Amino acid sequence: MAIIYGLESRPPLRVLLPAAFQHIGLGAVTLVFPLLVAEAAGADERTTANYVSLAMIALGIGTLLQCWGRRGIGSGFLLPSVYTAIFLPPAIAAAHVGGLGAVAGLTMVAGLTSIVLSRVIQRIRVFLPAEVVGLVVTVLGIILGLLSLRLVLGVDEIGNGGTRDLPAGIVALLVTFGVAVWGGARLRTVAVLVGLGAGCLTHLVLLLAGLLPGSAAPEIHLTVISWPLAAPNLPLVYLPGFMVGAVAAAVRVMGDVVASQRANDPAWKRTDFRTVQGGMMADGLANVIAGAIGVIGMNSYSASVGLAAATGITARRVAAAAGLGWILLGLTPGAASLVMAVPRGVLGAVLLYAASYILMSGMTIITQRLLDTRRTLTIGVALLIALSYSEIPGMYAALPDYLLMTIGSGLVLGMAAALALNAIFRIGATHHAEWSWDPAQGTGALLDFVNEAGRSCGARAEVVGKAAHLLEEFADAAPLVVDPGQTVLVRARFDELHLDIDLAWQGEAMAAGAAVDLDADIEAAGFVSGLAMVLMRHHADRLEPTTLPDGRHGLTATIDDH
């Protein structure tokens, strides 16, 4: 969908508030994670309600940090913070043994780990190529999509459960999709909010009519927040799980920020690491604060990226409003109970809507790159390994507890597999290629060379396409400037930012003029090479004629991957 209110826009209140409420409603589903942690720690109902209230305040702080986007803190995008399943397995295990204090201390360490990663991400980016980031976004889309289906159907991972929330979930799903597809431009921006309202209203009507057996009206706890709930402590046995989770969370932030960059810039070409670093820093600070407050770790929310893209509202002021809204909800007695009363099936319906956009965003990031055998195997195998975590759970059930806590989820497993395979397959790989081309071989052989070089270094298809057009123009002029029987040395280099093409030959220099002399003989070598130079400059960001020490003539063309 086209952007209606861009990043720096000032949406009117009639747009701003509904948009913020949509993101709050979408993120409310993740409050089930701190709820599960509180239950694992043996907290009573009032303590649990207090814990969820503190969790909402932490969400607000994290969201405000993420949308700040100044002085190296925050990505500056509409990217709310939510609770994540990445930290859930080790957090539940720590809560069982050390209570909420253990979760608080370990969450602070995870936050510090993310802060360190934000400072070194540019140095290690060679191990985090765009296709790996795209894989993370794709797996997140799949995981969120499957979670949303389970919530709508009211079943667990193996299909057990009831259908109590199914009617409300189906209504929410149909209304959300209907408004998004057939609603007017203004109505489409609030599709999730309309779906949430319709689903909750359906559930309420069925509840009052007695058509939901075993259901009762939610109990509201009007408690005033108390803090701290427990003193932080640090059981070291659970530290690896939280640190691995921090790495996975950092990669997820990177994927979400890249997806946000794409959503806000239709001409997006490559990752802007400045906003990635800011996003990781904000995520780390948010988790340090979450640990200090006493709650589980947070992360950026891929579903909100999908929602922003779906509604066309990407203004970061929406994130600021959502952050303030979370803090207000956390400080309001009884608000935690009301948020938790929203039917899970309704939350699943709107989550499914957002997950579809996330999945397509991840696939687009992957397919923008030319993939050679190494990269194809890395993405394909890592994706299958990620899916195996939920599809073949018995294979992992036999692992030691410390390994299970370290893996935690299909996302962590798939990411670890992708990073490991990427590092292994870099052995013997090169980001440069060299070949001697005989003009008698024709243009096809030259194009095959540049396409294969592009695949081996993972350049974007658009960049390699420009290089191919440039070499095609050179090939047309080559018979007139290269001495008979001589070859052209062709070198290609790629460093994630630029693709450089070097050409060297024995013969005549290419005409260096910026324009073609229309009065010249069109059959003359000078006219043909001059025309080729003009056309090559159109495809390259920089094109420089050179003369080598051995007397050969050359050209150096640079195509920016931007």
From TrEMBL:
The chain crosses the membrane at residues 15-36, 48-65, 102-121, 133-154, 166-185, 192-216, 236-254, 318-340, 346-365, 377-396, 402-425. GO terms for cellular component: plasma membrane. Keywords: Membrane, Transmembrane, Transmembrane helix, Transport. It comes from the Bacteria. InterPro entries: NCS2. GO terms for molecular function: xanthine transmembrane transporter activity. It is a multi-pass membrane protein. This is Xanthine/uracil/vitamin C permease. It comes from Neoroseomonas lacus.
